[in-house]
Amino acid sequence: MRAEASQVDAWQLLGNNITWDSLLPYYKRSEGFQSPTAEQRAMGADYDPGYHGFTGPLSVSWPNEMVGDNFSSILNETFKSLDLPWNGDANNGQMRGYNIFPKTFDRFEDKREDSARAYYFPISERPNLDVYLNATAQRITWEPESHTSKPFANGVTFRTTNGSEVTILADREVVLSAGALMSPVLLELSGVGNKE
Hints:
Layout: H1 5-9, H2 20-30, E1 31-33, H3 38-42, E2 58-60, H4 69-81, E3 105-106, E4 111-112, H5 115-120, E5 136-143, E6 152-159, E7 165-169, H6 179-189
Parallel strand pairs: 1-2
Antiparallel strand pairs: 3-4, 5-6, 6-7
């Protein structure tokens, strides 16, 4: 599930140019959406193709074994009685209402999808890929380090299992992908955000 548009748009109030609309192309680019079957549609699976990408590496679909239509209908009626309407696609930026949303799941393989399956396994044999297991990111490094001009991320420092610190510099870009909890922590450890 994607965040509510108003939540993402609130980031702009913090002084950056990130909005839900500016993130949508990236959501779509990462997604290999698998449209619901006729049987899944009959059980309530619905979507708006304008909010989904169909060629990305991360499989998104409904599981092959879905809860039957009777249960979904009862739940939908309960939500309606609470003034929460049916929401055809909760990934459209408006999460309010009842919906049978897709999962990160590959219906054709009948497997739960994850970032390793989508991004790592297909390229794991590349000669220019190094993987550091059980390493802990310490901070993002910046160029220039002075505060006189606008810095940009140029690498990362991490701690290995034997306790030594290693810094790796990027040739093109640094991608921060440490999850909803650790990404902000890593940013703060790198001098971005709360100073306390």
